[in-house]
Amino acid sequence: MHRLSPTTATAHLPHTPSGTPLPRLYRPEEIAEALGCSAWWVKDRARRSLIPHTRVGRAYRFTADHLAEIVRLHEETPARPAPSSPAVSRDESPQPRRHPTTPVNRLRARPPRRAQYDATA
To answer: How far is CA 113 from the centre of its chain?
Structure first.
C-alpha cells in the first residue's frame, strides 16, 4: 500500500529553476488505493469535475493537496449531536410516533385492465 505523504514525495522530485521542488503527481490507481475505492470511481469523478485533479494530456493526475481536498469534500459530520435517550426496558419496544390528526394512508391495488387482455379477438 502506498503512503502519500508530502515529506517523502518531495525527496526525489526534480526542482524548478527557482529551487522549489515540483509536486509529485499520483495516478488514479494510487489515489484509489489510498481512498479504498476503485480507480474507475476516481477517474469518473475527475471526468465530471467533482474532485480536484490535473490533466496531463489525456491522463488524470493528482497531488497530495488534491487528495487532502478530496477527503475534505467527502467528509460527513453529524448534523446534530445524538440525543441521550433514557434507557428503554426490554419489554417496551419504541413505537413510531404519529401526529394524532394525520390520517394513515393505505395503499390500494388498482383493478386489472382486462380490456388489453381481451380474449374475444
So the answer is: 43
Largest CA distance in the chain: 89
Q: What's 62's DSSP letter? A: B
pTM over 0.70: no
Residues present in the chain in total: 121
Q: How far apart are CA 3 and CA 61, in angstroms?
A: 16
Note the Cα 92 to chain centre separation in Å: 37
- Dig out the grid coordinates for 118 from the structure: 381481451
- Grid coordinates given for 112: 386489472
pLDDT tens, position by position, 63-117? 999 999 999 999 988 887 766 665 555 556 566 666 666 667 788 888 877 766 6
Q: On the CB side of 27, how many CA atoms lie within 13 Å of its CA?
A: 7
